Every structure is written in C-alpha cells, then in structure tokens.
Fold 6-phospho-beta-glucosidase.
Amino acid sequence: MFNKVEGFPKDFLWGGATASNQCEGAYNVGGKGLSTLDFVKFIEKKDRRNDIQTMDVTYDQLNQYLEDESNINFPKRRGIDFYHQYKEDIKLMAEMGFKTFRMSISWPRIFPTGMEEEPNEEGLKFYDAVFDELLANGIEPLVTMIHYEIPIELTKKYNGWESRELVDYFVKYTKTLLDRFKDKVKYWIIFNEINMMLASAYTGGGLFPEKSSRSNLEVKYQATHHQFLASALTTKYAREAAPNAKIGCMIARLETYPATCRPEDMLKAIQEDQLNVFYTDVMVRGKYPNYMTRYFEEHNIHLQTEKGDEEILACYTADYVAFSYYMTYLASSEPAKSETSGNLIGTLKNPYLELSEWNWPIDPIGLRITLNRLYDRYNVPLFIVENGLGAYDKLEDGKVHDPYRIDYLAKHITQMKEAVKDGVELLGYTTWGCIDLISAGTSEMSKRYGYIYVDQDDYGNGTLQRYKKDSFYWYKKVIASNGEDL
Ligand code: BGP
C-alpha cells in the first residue's frame, strides 16, 4: 500500500528543449511562410537585460513593414541554422545520452499562410527527416505543435486568435501533423505556454487588442477560449487517429508566494495563482473554474461561446501537464515597491533569492513546491519541459567553463528528485535551449542556456560552429546515472 519512491523512474525522459523559430533559421526556405515571430526579430533591440520581456510588436510597427516590402530587412540569421545542421546537433544530443528532445513544428512551414488547402510537402519532409534522425539515435521526440508561431496572414486577415476561424485552420494543421507523424511521435504538447496570451497577445495569439472593438482583457480571454477549443478538438482527433499519442497541455508556471504572511497578501497570491492555473484547470479538469465566473463579471468580460463548446472541453482533456519553470513570483496587496524582471511578467523582489544576470530570481525549492502543488491539484503526470539559466558564456580555446550553469541545474534537479520522493509523478525534464539559440525575450544570442555553445553573436556574425561546454560532460554524467551523480 505504501510504496517508497527512491529516485527517478527507470524510464525518466532526460533531455533538452528548443523551438523552431529560435533555432531553425531558414525563415524563407523550403516554402515556409512568414510568421508573427519573424517580425518580432527585426525590431531593433537595445540591451534588454533589465526589461520585462514581452516580445511585443505594435500594430503600427507591423504595418510599417507590411506596407512596404523593402522595409522587411531581416537580420542575417535568426536561428542557429538547425534547419541545415540538425544531424550534427542530434549527434551531440545523442552523445549526451538524451532520451528525449523537445522541438516544435513551425505552422507556416506546413501551411505557409495558414489557409492553404494542401500542406507544404517540403515542410513535412523536413520534420520527417528530423524525427527519423532522432529515432535512429534512440531519442524520443517531444513535439510542440505551436511555439508562438502564427502565419502572419492569419494576423492580417483575422486579427489572429480573436477570430473563431482560427480554430478550424489550426485543427486542420494539427490533424495533418497527427496523420503524418503518428508513428514517429508519441509525446505532443499542443500550445507552448498557452497563458502567454495574457502577457503578450501578439506573441501568444497573433492579435492586437487595440484593433478589436472589445476590451483588452476580454479579447485575450476570447482568444484563449478559441485556443482551448482548438486544443480539445486536436485531442479528440488524436484519440481517434493516433491512439498511442500522449497529449499534453502546457503553461509557463508562475508559482506565486505571498509577499508577507499578511492574510491580504496570501489572498492576493491565491488570486494571482488562479489566473495562472486557470489554463490548466480548463485543459485538465475540462471546465471553466468557478473563480473565473466572478473574475469575468468584475472585469466585464463576456465571452462569445457556442452550443457544444462546453461538451468539447469536458470530453477531451490533456493526458499530462507540461510546464516551464524559471522562477517564482511575489504577490502583494499593496502597490509594487521594487520590481525585478522575469519570464513573461515582472515581479516584486524576493529578498531570499539570488538573481540571474538577467535579473530573474533563482528558486530551486520553488520547483519542488510547484511540482507538489500541481500534482496535488491534478493528479496527472507532470513534465518539466523548460528550465535553465540564461547566462553570458565565454569561449576560450574552444572551451566554455560554465560552473554557474551546472550549479543552477544541479540545485533544480536535487529539488526535482525530492518532489519525486514526495510522490509526484514526473515524466521527464527537458532543459531549455540545450543548444544555444536566439532568446525569445531579447532576440539576442548572448543570453545562452545550452550545453552546446554556438559561435554566433547578437548580430548574426560567427562561424556557427558548435562547441561542447563543461556542462555538456556534466549533463552526460547526470543522465547516465539517472540523476544520481550531480
Ligand atoms: C519561455 C519560452 C521560450 C524561451 C524561454 C526563455 O517563455 O517558451 O521560448 O525562450 O522562455 O526565455 P528567454 O529566451 O527570454 O530567456
């Protein structure tokens, strides 16, 4: 009756994570259409270390570029050329002993405008080749169907996910993926960080709230509703057409502590946390939680829904909860005094935590807390699909010494192991940007997360050669010992 858990399960999925738009490059190769994120990257960035990173583009900025094609002055490279170098990269991952590799498929590589009748065969072939390479190297693909990348034509024509039309276009795309790759891919995540909609509607939903006649918040939740439907309908199709598929939902986990033990702060922490787990509540429990009824009413949010929506959400829920974890947040009932930056949203400074070079609080114990809380809430397996330290690295004589990264990861894995001993069912751990890639928040190369160094600077200069960092050899040892040798 009482089974003691000693450590990570034997089949624990160790690996790393990437996203197509941050690593493939080749934005106009192989029939790919332009995506919302292609536009984020040509807006000049200053040193954004201290900014809250929202990845936003304004409607005016986008239009300025769209009006005159010659304005489209794409930087030389906006990835690390994974599109052409995937074989070499996968070889390095296999050398580290990866059991899984999280990657995403670029929607506009498959449907360039999102609205074609037939998919782009060249795009499908590219992913076929990547999956074959992974499987040949004994690496299980973990595939995100959409990592923020929306065909730009859908933004222009429909204001992105504000329109319900996007549900059908997206489901057509995801059905294409399931049909084509069901024998190669078992683990899927439908939307990357679906709660990103709140922080940046452009990135999360390809939409400009100011273009809508509705309030900013209302349009974001409307778009979210459409994404929930698209997720459930994708899951419905997977149950029929790819019965072995495991379908995950994903949020950026914003674990929130009260700033003090004042009851008002505790209440505030619960309320802010609810706005985060609202997403998983709908996708795992299959219905809108009661607390949102009050929230919607108080914020004058009226969602347009159709008959049958409720049933779809109830019937097709996620098999597991995937999440990114970088830091924890503080909630206070008093107006903010001092803020620091963070992943997706800023937060108050927690005096007990150190900050990364980008001022993101570092909180390994928070990972154990969040694993316990999510598991208690849902009782379905969890999957940590992003975690890691963005840092400046120095390449010297072909070597990168990154003890800071090893220290960060070892502390997080230690807490992860404690959570597993607490009884949390954890499927795996894929650290973010296992090979250096372009940062989502800053569009820069110098914020590096990887075990593999890629020779490229913020302006796209460099040989693109790959080098193994010290953390490469360390992670190899961690995987070989199933998390025992840290
Ligand atoms: C997550 C995104 C990733 C990623 C990561 C790190 O929110 O899913 O795409 O980039 O954050 O963020 P950054 O690149 O800004 O350091």
